[in-house]
Amino acid sequence: MATADDLRGAMELDRVIHEPARLLIVAILYADRSAAYPSLLSMTRLTSGNLHTHLRQLEKAGYIQAERAYRGKRSITVWHLSEVGHAAFEIYQGQLKQIADHLTELIV
Question: Which stretches in the chain have pLDDT values below 70?
Fold first, then answer.
């Protein structure tokens, strides 16, 4: 039987990832391994300024890395999930699953 202590895992969720826009960005990069800035802008439907802010927070945490690439003569920024970010997202997913499992036990 799940207890309140079992659910305290929600308090330990990674706050950098847990914010909805950053969660979406990390999930996209986890699935695709990398994405160019215009693709992230399109997939997230965030404003350019908002996306930029969230990317910087994820970069500051060491979860993503930027790489300059060229498409023809145009320079673009491609974002990658770092090893640290990959591991942090897997931990985050595990914590969510654990919380969901404990809630299921409480309901049943």
Answer: 1-10, 106-108
